[in-house]
Amino acid sequence: MDRENFFDNLRDDSGGPAELLRARRQLAYEERVIKRVFSECGIKINGWGRFANQCRDMTGQDKLNFNWFNSVFTHFPGTLCGRRIPGLFKLQLVDLFKPRQNRLARAVVKALRGYNLEPQSSSFVLVFPVVRTSFCAHSMTRLKASNRISLQLAYEDFTLTIEPTAGFGRAIGSDWFET
Question: How do the domains of the chain map onto residue ranges?
């Protein structure tokens, strides 16, 4: 690769190396989220190798991913998905109280539709980071009572609950995990 092609590839966000890099980052993010879900639900995994081999056999990917998780752990209370949502750190408190133009709810709905999930008819857990804290948006209504803070947004024709993943993990516990 010559010098000009190298710099063209760095600036190219439409495909090629940039698309491959974006896919690798998403897979790394999915693996981190899955490991976080296990730890925050109070599940200790002694060896990740068995899961990594099972995931590689099922999906062809070297890293744990949401497709593998959702097909193996069917008792998890919703479809696990997640991605970075740009600009969430710029949200202000007034943005959360806008019923029609709620930026957070619109971003979550857009991300869910990227996974072919409809918020009003699907059971989901969408994990996203805000600065260094992991949050999730979910549609679970019956969770164990625990000390946690959550934000409920009535958006269009469904209710969206947003809370830190640590509180959500404590609330669902480890009952869904079967070895």
Answer: 3-172
Residues of the chain with pLDDT under 70: 1-15, 145-146, 179
Both tokens assigned to 29: 């993010």
CA atoms within 13 A on the CB side of 132: 0
pTM equals: 0.84
pLDDT in tens, 129-143: 988 889 999 988 777
- Cα distances (Å, whole numbers) of residue 32 to 26, 102, 107: 10, 28, 21
Contacts of 67 by beta carbon, 8 Å cutoff, 6+ apart: 58, 59
Beta bridge partners of 125: 80, 138
- Tell me what pLDDT residue 130 has: 84
Burial class of residue 66 in the structure, from the number of CB atoms within 10 Å of its CB (0-12 exposed, 13-18 middle, 19+ buried): buried
Q: Where are the alpha helices (DSSP H) in the chain?
A: 3-11, 17-40, 49-59, 66-72, 93-96, 103-114, 165-172
Report the DSSP beta bridge partners of residue 152. 161
